[in-house]
Write a structure and sequence with these properties.
Blueprint: H1 6-15, H2 22-45, H3 74-78, E1 84-85, E2 88-89
Antiparallel strand pairs: 1-2
Helix pairs in contact: 1-2
Length: 98
């Protein structure tokens, strides 16, 4: 049986300022009990010889080398800009900073 009691669920709900009905408390008591039991099963299997993992498969980042390619000139890029400041786009400040 679960180590979680209805009184504990009601206390946690009170701390979190969540208003739960008696039916919700009973339902959550059962659900939280199942979660505690599932975690207990995992801890039985995960002994000191089992390394901690965040993902079942090894993950690696795949990067490509940066290659310089022909692109737009500054004039072409800024041709349709509503406003510009030299060779940059000019936009309205958003953080009250200049």
């Amino acid at each position: 049986m679960s180590e979680i009691s209805a009184e504990q669920v009601a206390h946690l709900a009170s701390l979190a300022r969540i208003d739960l009905s008696q039916e919700e408390i009973e339902s959550l008591t059962s659900e939280l009990g199942q979660i505690v039991e599932a975690v207990a099963k995992v801890t039985e299997v995960a002994g000191p010889d089992v390394p901690a993992t965040s993902h079942p498969l090894p993950l690696t980042n795949v990067f490509r080398d940066d290659v310089v390619r022909p692109s737009l000139t500054v004039e072409q890029a800024l041709a349709a800009a509503p406003d510009r400041l030299g060779d940059k786009f000019k936009v309205a400040p958003i953080l009250d900073e200049e």
